[in-house]
Amino acid sequence: MAEGNKRRFPLWVYQDTLDNVKKLYKDDNCKSQSEFIEKAIIFYAGYLSTEDNKKYLPNIVISIMKATVEESETRLARLLFKLAVEMSMTMNVLAASKDVDDITLTRLRAKCVDDVKKTNGSINFEDAVKFQKS
Q1: Does one domain contain both 89 and 115?
Q2: Any domain includes 80
Q3: Is the residue at 34 inside a domain?
Q4: How far apart are CA 100 and CA 119, in angstroms?
Q5: pLDDT per residue over 71-108, tens digit each?
Q6: Is 30 exposed, middle or buried (0-12, 13-18, 19+ CB in 10 A)?
Q7: Which residues constitute the domain of residue 92?
Q8: What is the pTM of this model?
Q9: In the 8-state DSSP scheme, what is residue 122?
Q10: What is residue 74's three-state secondary structure?
Q11: Quick one: pLDDT at residue 66?
Q12: Is 8 a domain residue?
């Protein structure tokens, strides 16, 4: 925002526009409708003054995309944490019910790592059952 004294000036707008300002100015954390209108003018002036308007809008798109990615990242992190907890519970229940020697466990880990690499993580239960039965 510019430094200095603010000035009052007449502003002629349609009633629909004023209704829209009244409805939205608090959503934009503005203290007044005047502040909202001033921010809108500054935004629009910035949009018009950029070279072919190509530099201004991409910044808006980038900030929206960053927020979307951050939200998705947070959601995925929570889901991965929940999945890790469930996997830990499953492994502990299975380990308590089966007696697997260290050599078999080492070979199974190597086979599983190899399978994950080959299938890029797309492993299904049916393939594991076939392997265990063979």
Answers
A1: no
A2: yes
A3: yes
A4: 26
A5: 999 999 999 999 899 988 888 888 888 888 889 889 98
A6: middle
A7: 52-98
A8: 0.43
A9: -
A10: helix
A11: 87
A12: no
